[in-house]
Structure formats: C-alpha cells, structure tokens
Write a structure and sequence with these properties.
The structure is a single chain. The chain is an alpha/beta fold. The chain folds into four domains: about 10-75 and about 230-285, TIM Barrel (Alpha-Beta Barrel), CATH 3.20.20.70; about 75-225, Alpha-Beta Barrel (TIM Barrel); about 295-390, Recoverin, domain 1 (Orthogonal Bundle); about 395-554, Double Stranded RNA Binding Domain (2-Layer Sandwich). The chain contains 20 helices and 16 strands. It has helices at about 25-40, 50-60, 90-95, 110-115, 120-135, 150-155, 155-170, 185-195, 215-225, 245-255, 270-280, 300-310, 335-345, 355-370, 380-390, 435-450, 500-520, 525-530, 535-540, 545-554, and strands at about 5-10, 40-45, 70-75, 100-105, 140-145, 175-180, 200-205, 230, 295-300, 325-330, 395-405, 415-425, 425-435, 460-470, 480-485, 490-500. The strands form four sheets. The chain has an eight-stranded parallel barrel with strand order 1-2-3-4-5-6-7-8, surrounded by nine helices. Helix 6 packs across helix 7 (about 155-170) and helix 16 (about 435-450) runs parallel beside helix 17 (about 500-520). The radius of gyration is 29 Å and the shape is elongated. The N and C termini lie far apart (about 65 Å). Mean pLDDT is about 90; it is low at about 525-554.
Length: about 550
C-alpha cells in the first residue's frame, strides 16, 4: 500500500522572509489559489497578529473558495503570564475564522529562559494552554516545535517534554523544526529514532537549508515516520531558505514510492514553480532540480551523442513527467552530435556527408576561444550556422555608424547616433538620440530599417548584460555583450564580443534584428513561433526591464 505524505506550504509566510521576496495580499491570494489547484493539502496564509497585510489577506480569503487546500493561520503560543483568551495574537488567529491554526513554541531551553525570559515550567504551560484553548474552539492545531533539534541536542529531556506537552494539549500534528538549519542528516535520523516512540500524535518536519541539507533532512524524517513535510515553493525563505517542496515532491513521489498529490498534477510542477517565481518577481533558478531550465539540458558532445540514442544514458527521468523539456546547447565543448540536434531543432538542413557539421563545430570553437558564448545566445548561434553553411542572406548591410556622447556641467548627458545602411541597391542614412549610446544606435537603426522592414517595430528589449571577459587590460579589456529581445511570439538571445563596448553592443543588436528578419523573410515565423514561457515573461514584463535598459545603456 502506498504511503501518504501531506504537503504543507509556507511560501506565503516563511517564504516571504527570504531576501527580495515580497508579496502583496493580492499576490498571496493568487498563489494560494494556484497551490489549491495543484493539490497542496495545507497552505499557510501568514501571521495575522504580526502585520496588517496578513490580516487583510485572511479577510480576502474568507470570500474565496478552496477545493483541495486547508488555509492555515500561523501564530505563537500565548505570552508569559497572559491568559490565551486575553492574548492579542491569539485573538487575531481566531478572527481569521480558518479551521486550522499552526502554533509555534519553544523547544530549546535557551530560548525559553534567555530569549523569552520565562521559566521552563511557564514555557510548558504556554504551550499546553494555547493548544488546549484552540482545541476547545474546534480548531485543528498543528504545533511547530521551534528549534527542536538544537534543543534536543542541548537538553533532550526538556525538548521531548515540550512536544509531549503539546500532545497533551490536544495538538493534531507535532512538527519537528530545524529552525537554524544546522542539523546534520545523521543527527536527524538519530534524534527521530529516539523521539518517535514517545509520541502517538501524527508528526511532521520543518527544516531550513543553512547547511544545504534541507532536502536530505526532510527525506530522512519521512523515512523515520513523519507524515507531513512543511516547506516552500522554490525553497524561498529566510537566510538560505526552507526546503523546496518541489524537490520534496519530486523525490518522494517519483523516486521513493510515496503519494503526495494526484499523479496527473506532477506534469504541472514546472508550471507551478515558474508561476510562483513570476508572482514573487524572482528570476527562476536555472539549475533547480526537476523544474529548472537546465535540469535536462546537455552541453557536452559525448552526452548529446548518447541521449540521441537513449536519453536514460544521461537523464534520471523523462522531463515531460514534471512538465519540463530537454534542451541541447552548443559551445566549445560541443561535438557533431550537438550540431545534429540543434539544426534539427532549428529546421536547418545540412549536407549529408558531415562536412557542414565539422565546419560549424570548428567555427564555434574558434569564436568561443575569442570570448563568444553560444549556449547563452541561440539567436546568434542560428545565424552563425546559416552563415557557415551558406543559408543566410543578409537583409541589410552596415556601411558605417557614428556615436557621440555629450555631458554638460549640470550632470545631464545626451547620446546621438548616425547609421548608414544599404538594403539591396538602396541606401539609408538616419540619426537618432537615445538614453545612452546603445539606445541611440538602436533608435537610429530602427529608424533606418523601418522603411524596408516595418515588422521590427514589434521587437523590444528584454535584457542587456555586459561582462568583462578577462580584466588584466583594465578599461581596454575585451567585453561580451548579451542581448535578449522579444516580439509577440518569441524571445531570443544574441551576443557580441569586442574590446570596444559599443562595437560589441552593435554586433548583438544587429544579430537580434537579423534573427527577427531571417525568421520572417524565410517564411518560418509561424513554424518556429514559441510563446514565451512564464519564466521568460517574468523577465520581460518586470518593472526592472525598462530601468535596466536605461542604466546599462546610459
């Protein structure tokens, strides 16, 4: 019989304590509905007694309907020498009208005596009184034993007494917390083995990732018998974060034979991860297990050759099981297999004798030795392959450009650019101003091309990055410029390298425009259209994108 594990999400409370993670009450409600749709059993909405935003969230949530999720309110035990019915935090919990309350109390004697300033006996009374008070009001009570593992290591008898006291008060679930995130996995296994025989109540685990062991510790606790795992989507949380519920779910249900959610929901794991990143305005981590963009990405030629024969050679599972997809990159580590894969993906036909592959690999390795990085610029890669194989016809040719920057005493600066291009037998010279030299070049080029290719007005800048390749030459060092552009259907990246930052930017800019035009002029735009993923929309639609353009180009 498959063992059932309950998932408890605290993204809306513990997750928002992470650096740069900020959610409005409306954001939190959107995520709560997404978690409910996904099938998470418990969603902790916040601490209504600590701030007005969480109180407002619960006011809004009272009007909402949840199909799979029990919305949970978080709070502390009563204060020392105060009755539960007179404690303002507990009043705020009851005001939410939710059926489930999560209460945290002190398991470490150090925290009771030095942080709270109460006696050890009073701390026990605070725990039992609070749990019992809420149980009498027909609430489901989850008790979070804060700092349990540290407390047990320093004073095992007292730490055990605190969780027994919560159980005596009627707690429905006792959750062991590694609040500082410093417990080793072998200690989790040992302590759980010693503690579990003393409890009859259902148990859970809540760990932080300060030693990089949050996932290992959570899985170890499950194997020791706990039935609930608390964590956050994408591992957001204070300091180094909480355990990532996505990784917990992937391992428990796909690797260890436990049941956490409906099997069909697994295919929405990647979507959920990126949705939460988008709402939180956080860039998704590419190397996140199961759902990261790089989780099933291959770069080495030997690897690519193998996965074309059998993906299990270098993949632990099918990416589609979690809603992800396989990707192949091309770089100086590439072999002919990478080129085979990428050209099929791009619908570019090569000669059957392998000569084209060899030429492409040689050119990529030559350019990457100069500082190019094609695994991060697939727009430039596609153009390069077409040029090397004679399948690219330049839609326009640069005759010359000039950029001037003027700065006056008041501190203001202006940039102007003049561009001369030719399209067939026609020539066009235009000038434009911009917020910075690259913006001025962009404006001038668009102005020149608009007469011939009005579709470039659909394009927009998403991201612009400059990196020094090797800094020993100081301000004369070679730089790499990466540019990300988009239209209504697609996002693409291009690259330029030069000792002159304006020249490198021009290369990336021209590649970006030529990529757009080559797709449309070749009649492939619809075939290759690729709606931006949630991850890509996060960057493109974020309020920072316009500011990024002004700052980096100015």
């Amino acid at each position: 019989m498959t063992k059932q594990i309950t998932l408890y999400d605290t993204t809306l409370r513990d997750g928002t304590q992470g650096e740069q993670v900020n959610l409005s009450a409306e954001d939190k409600l959107r995520i709560a509905h997404k978690l409910d749709e996904f099938g998470i059993q418990y969603v902790e909405g916040g601490w209504p007694g600590s701030n007005p935003k969480d109180a407002r969230f619960f006011e809004m949530a009272r009007k909402a309907t949840f199909q799979n999720t029990r919305l949970t309110a978080f709070g502390s035990t009563r204060r020392g020498q105060v009755l539960p019915e007179e404690d303002q935090n507990i009043k705020a919990l009851l005001k939410t009208e939710v059926e489930t309350m999560t209460i945290f109390g002190k398991s470490w004697d150090l925290h009771a005596s030095e942080i709270l300033g109460v006696s050890l006996d009073e701390n026990l009374a605070m725990i039992e009184d609070t749990v019992a008070f809420l149980k009498k009001r027909d609430r489901e009570v989850i008790y979070d034993a804060e700092h349990f593992f540290d407390g047990y290591k320093h004073n095992p008898d007292y730490a055990l007494k605190t969780v027994k006291t919560a159980a005596n008060g009627g707690a429905d679930v006792i959750v062991f917390c590694d609040t500082n995130g410093g417990t080793m996995t072998h200690d989790v296994e040992r302590i759980m083995g010693e503690v579990m025989p003393h409890l009859t109540a259902s148990t859970g685990i809540h760990v932080h990732n300060d030693c990089g062991l949050a996932l290992a510790n959570s899985l170890a606790a499950v194997q020791a018998g706990v039935k609930m795992v608390q964590g956050t989507i994408n591992g957001y949380g204070e300091r180094c974060g909480n355990v990532d519920l996505i990784a917990v779910l992937g391992n428990l249900q796909l690797k260890m034979g436990y049941s956490c959610i409906a099997p069909e929901a697994l295919k929405r794991m990647t979507e959920l991860s990126r949705y939460v990143s988008e709402v939180a305005n956080m860039l998704p981590s590419k190397d996140r297990p199961f759902v990261g963009k790089s989780a099933f990405t291959h770069k080495g030629g030997v690897h690519v050759s193998a996965i074309q024969k059998n993906p299990t050679a270098y993949e632990h599972m099918e990416p589609e099981e979690v809603g992800n997809k396989r990707r192949v990159l091309v770089s100086d580590l590439s072999g002919k297999s990478n080129i085979d894969y990428k050209t099929r993906e791009m619908d570019i036909k090569l000669g059957g004798n392998g000569y084209d592959n060899k030429k492409i690999v040689q050119e990529i390795k030559r350019l990457e030795d100069q500082g190019y990085q094609f695994d991060a610029a697939e727009g430039s890669l596609e153009l390069l392959i077409k040029k090397v194989t004679g399948q690219f016809e330049e839609p326009f040719t640069l005759e010359s450009f000039r950029v001037t920057i003027e700065k006056n005493r008041s501190g203001a600066s202006t940039s102007q650019a003049t561009v001369k291009i030719s399209v067939g037998d026609e020539h066009e010279i235009t000038a434009a101003e911009g917020d910075g030299p690259v913006n001025a070049l962009d404006n001038a080029l668009r102005k020149a091309l608009n007469k011939f290719f009005p579709q470039i007005n659909e394009m927009g800048l998403v991201d612009f990055k400059v990196r020094v390749i090797e800094g020993s030459d100081g301000t004369g060092a070679k730089v790499r410029v990466q540019m990300q552009s988009r239209d209504a259907r697609e996002i693409w990246s291009t690259i330029g390298v030069s000792e002159n930052i304006i020249e490198a930017s021009w290369q990336a800019l021209v590649d970006s425009v030529q990529y757009k035009l080559s797709r449309e002029l070749n009649g492939k735009d619809e075939k290759h259209s690729n709606h931006p993923s949630k991850e890509e929309k996060t960057t493109a639609d974020s309020p920072e994108s316009g500011e990024l353009r002004r700052v980096l180009e100015g």
